[in-house]
Amino acid sequence: MNVTLRQLRAFLAVHQEGSFTKAAENLHITQSALSSIIKELELNLELGLFDRSTRKLETSEAGRNILPAVIRMLDEMDALTNEVMGLKKLDYGKVRIAVVQQLASAELPRIIALYSKMFPQVEVSLIDCGVENVQEIVNLGEADIGIGPERKLLSSLNKQLIFSHPFHLALPPNHPIAKEANIRWKDLANLELITLRGSFTELIIDNLLRESSEYIISPKYLVNFMSTALSMVANGLGVTICLPYAIESVKQNGLVIIPICDPIIYRNFYLYSCKNREKLPAVQKFIDVFLKNMQFNKV
Questions:
Q1: Which of 82, 139, 158, 241 has its C-alpha lying 20 to 30 A from 16's C-alpha?
Q2: Sheet harboring 266-274: ordered strands across?
Q3: Start and end of every HTH lysR-type domain (predicted)?
């Protein structure tokens, strides 16, 4: 059985008008074309849908029996069409973003505010999380996209490079080296260093020669969060390694940053998404707005 929506709409129009002539006018087709469509539908269904006489046209008993189902199907198709159009026009939708905590507080609020002003009907939710959780949250379908630093990529995900930042040293503005143009990694051995546990520091060590990394392996303080490290620096407990995207947090703690060189080590940040999950228009538009307006790559 190969019944089309066109055939069902034609059947409903004839039933409602009680006339092929009036129904054809409403459908903007000729009466002969409408008659052919109805005949095709009757052949497909193997049912006579109308009782024809010289005086009037009436819907048959079989036609009246299928009428509720036809109306329901057409209503559902109209609802589907409206849903698709609404999604395409961004009349509504949802965007869920998993972002590492420091990034979530640095740049994302401004981008979300801009996007929400452009598309106020779209709901945006932000999942601020640990670095190691970004990919997994996207993989589980709890977020549409993830933004975070480079980590071993899950096989189910794609990644897109969005910016790279070189490591800097955060320190009080009255520190003896605060006005230096830069500092070498090996010279950190002369400072009281505060570093982060886990991948943040481990990936730095992987990029350094042994003599330059020894002091980083055994810092004075080891903490879990950059906010903690910056607060400790602000209270005179040492200096810490950070990335320029955290500049607002650095400033809020009354600190300054200087580049670390010899070598210059960059940390790459990526946008993560699922390979086999189609992005809704609202999600793709958010990505476009984010990439166009982010300022991470201008730091």
A1: 82
A2: 122-129, 93-100, 145-149, 266-274, 157-166
A3: 3-60
